[in-house]
Amino acid sequence: MPGGPVSEILGVLLDNARTHGRGTTRVAVRGLDDALAFDVSDEGIVQGEPVQLFDQGLTGDGQGTGIGLALARDLAVSMGGQLFLTSDTPATFTLLVPVRRDKHDAAEPTDR
Question: What is the pTM (predicted TM-score) of this model?
Fold first, then answer.
């Protein structure tokens, strides 16, 4: 898929918000010292424990198994990043993507 792993993970998070969330979905990007943080939130409330969300997926509403969250987390880790639940009200997931600095001090995601 064009865009690489970051696009794949954000696609899972946005689909998750659309399927399981309520109201408006918001995406925010923040630059940190050594990473980019992508926050995806909706106006819903996360049901279940964070460990269950990633290991077993979201279930019970007939909208899918939620296995995408587990795969997205594994993909984030494989590229040196992290994916975690930041808040359960509103439901917010954060993807941290490490960046490298070139000789001109420009930040670039390391998933290239």
Answer: 0.75
Q: Give residue 61's identity as a one-letter amino acid code.
A: D
Buried b (16+ CB within 10 A) or exposed e, 54-88: beebbeeeeeeebebbbebbebbeebebebebeee
- Give the domains, in start order, of the chain with CATH numbers: 4-101 (3.30.565.10)
Give residues with Cβ within 8 angstroms of 3, minimum separation 6: none
Residue 88 has pLDDT above 90, yes or no: no
At residue 29, the 3 state secondary structure works out as strand
Measured in degrees and rounded to the nearest 5, phi and psi for residue 106 equal -95, 135
